[in-house]
Design brief:
heterodimer, A: 274 residues, mainly alpha, MetI-like fold, 2 domains, 11 helices, B: 279 residues, 3-stranded parallel sheet, two-stranded antiparallel sheet, 13 helices, 48% helix, globular
């Protein structure tokens, strides 16, 4: 009887018409996209334009790249590893600096007044524009990493500042009424409140980070990288290789976003927000 | 050269080639006579044209001229080189074997020497003739296309007795830059080929390797119609390197995987039992 009740609850909660429609649409979404891509590629190729390979040609290029990508002469995993190392270093560096700085600037109006003009001046500059300078100034190893750093730093920073400022003044007053000192208000109220905003910044940064890495690796890619696959394929006119690199970035982007979401959920649980 | 351009405006294609031949011959003669009293002024002009285009000093231009052979004629020996290049690309995987099942047929279809033979007899147009716009793409600062630089010079046109106009203009051509070409020229041959792929270019000055790669992989309707030079692609090393074996373990720069330099590097490595790996 109890399990029947459970089933009814599950049915009521999950098997709604709206959920079924949404799940069905999600299932058919990718096949529709691939079919559309395939038709478009065949259409272009029929017109003697070969810059859009079919999904099968891209798959073949991926299979070939698995052993050795002819453009970079490295295996796909070696290229992915090279990009991932850059990505993680740049990302962690940005997070490690942007989070405390964001907390400080969100909390202290004076610190914010000092930093605001410089931050607003630097923020609109696309990270890609820094690449040539960073490659020369910070070496071919650190240059691409610092490009990712710039891409991730500003979204995280802005979100953390916004998060600290969005704390309900009533909660701060309540904490003060309970006898909390300034440090306790900061550490027990403001910091925890900024975490969801920080995570939103992290998610934006994850996407921007991959855009930056590809741009940086198109100019320099010590030890390979997915950007090197893309630019290498383009240079020799092997657009199947170029798209194989693009698909790899897409998959890596999804994976890192999933990991980001997982961490976000854990953090929220840990903070008692779920 | 773009095949659609050749088919739609064969006279313009022949005129471009004739200007190329004239410029080519002038360079060869100028270098040959550089030590004669009457040839010195022309040689200085040649060096200055090269220096101005390449942003290098005249010493570098003079050195470049010593190391490359300026020539337009396309012979069977060159076609055989192209076949070797294509075979190397197929075996390295940069060209899919399914795209080029027959290398001989592919290269024979790519090379068109008929235009060159026909272009020899093209004569200059009258000074008031309307010029035909031809979009000519080239590499940034690359002296291998010295003929194009010289053919753009009104001073050389005047020296050749073609009037106060460039060699191109004398043959009825107004050489214009492809709309998407960076101001100073394309970064490498692969980038030049995007001009053809994007239907933005009629004539391109670039090496055979990127042409072979992009025609094979993109099935572009482009023909190699003449040479601009041979040789001159150097490996610059410090004084510690005296043999190929001294290169073992060193980091070697090259202009890109579609370049002749990269192909030569692979060839050297193959011949001497080394493997080129990405640093």
């Amino acid at each position: 009887m109890s399990s029947l009740l459970d089933m009814r609850v599950i049915h009521k909660r999950y098997l709604t018409k709206d959920n079924l429609i949404r799940t069905s649409l999600m299932i058919v979404s990718l096949p529709i996209f691939i079919a559309f891509w395939w038709i478009l590629a065949l259409y272009f190729q029929g017109q003697n334009f070969y810059y859009l390979p079919t999904p099968l040609e891209v798959w073949d290029a991926l299979v070939q790249a698995w052993t050795q990508d002819p453009a970079t002469r490295l295996s796909l995993l070696a290229n992915v590893y090279a990009s991932l190392v850059r990505f993680l270093l740049g990302f962690l560096l940005a997070l490690g600096l942007a989070a405390p700085l964001g907390l400080l600037l969100g909390y202290s109006r004076y610190a914010n007044a000092l930093a605001f003009p410089v931050i607003e001046l630097l923020r609109p500059i696309p990270p890609i524009a820094w690449v040539p300078f960073l490659l020369l100034a910070a070496s071919f190893f650190w240059g691409p990493i610092l490009t990712i750093f710039i891409g991730v730093f500003f979204p995280v920073l802005s979100n953390v500042i916004f998060g600290v400022r969005s704390v309900d003044p009533l909660i701060i007053d309540a904490a003060k009424t309970q006898g909390a000192n300034r440090w306790q208000v900061f550490s027990k109220v403001m910091f925890p409140s900024s975490i969801p905003y920080m995570m939103a910044g992290v998610k934006i940064g994850l996407g921007v980070g991959w855009m930056c890495i590809v741009a940086a690796e198109m100019l320099a890619s010590q030890g390979g990288g997915v950007g090197a696959i893309i630019v290498g394929g383009q240079t020799v006119g092997r657009y199947d290789i170029m798209f194989a690199g693009m698909v790899t970035v897409a998959v890596l982007g999804i994976l890192t976003l999933l990991i980001g979401s997982l961490i976000e959920r854990r953090v929220k649980k840990w903070m008692g927000m779920e | 050269m773009d095949q659609t351009f050749i088919n739609s405006n064969r006279n313009a294609a022949l005129a471009v080639l004739k200007a190329h031949i004239e410029a080519n011959n002038w360079i060869v003669e100028t270098v040959a006579n550089k030590n004669t009293t009457e040839g010195q002024a022309n040689y200085t002009l040649l060096l200055n044209l090269g220096a101005s285009f390449s942003n290098r000093n005249t010493t570098v231009v003079a050195s470049a001229l010593e190391h490359m052979t300026i020539q337009y004629n396309l012979t069977e020996a060159h076609t055989n080189y192209f076949k070797n290049f294509t075979n190397a690309y197929v075996s390295s995987g940069l060209i899919k074997a399914t795209d080029v099942p027959d290398v001989d047929a592919f290269v024979n279809g790519l090379v068109d020497t008929s235009l060159l033979a026909e272009a020899i007899s093209v004569t200059p147009v009258s000074e008031d003739a309307t010029l035909t716009n031809v979009r000519i793409g080239y590499l940034n600062g690359d002296l291998h296309q010295f003929s194009r630089v010289v053919a753009m010079s009104a001073e050389v046109g005047s020296l050749l007795g073609l009037g106060d106009r460039s060699v191109f203009a004398a043959y009825g051509i107004n050489a214009v830059a492809p709309s998407a070409m960076p101001g100073s020229g394309y970064a490498n041959g692969g980038a030049v080929m995007t001009g053809f792929a994007g239907n933005d270019m009629d004539v391109g000055y670039l090496g055979a390797p990127p042409t072979i790669l992009n025609v094979a992989n993109q099935k572009l309707d482009v023909s190699i119609v003449a040479l601009a030079n041979t040789e001159g692609s150097a490996l610059i090393v410090n004084n510690d390197v005296e043999s190929i074996d001294d290169l073992d373990g060193l980091t070697i720069g090259e202009p890109g995987i579609s370049s002749i330099q990269y192909l030569l590097l692979l060839e050297i490595a193959d011949r001497y039992g080394y493997e080129v790996v990405k640093a």
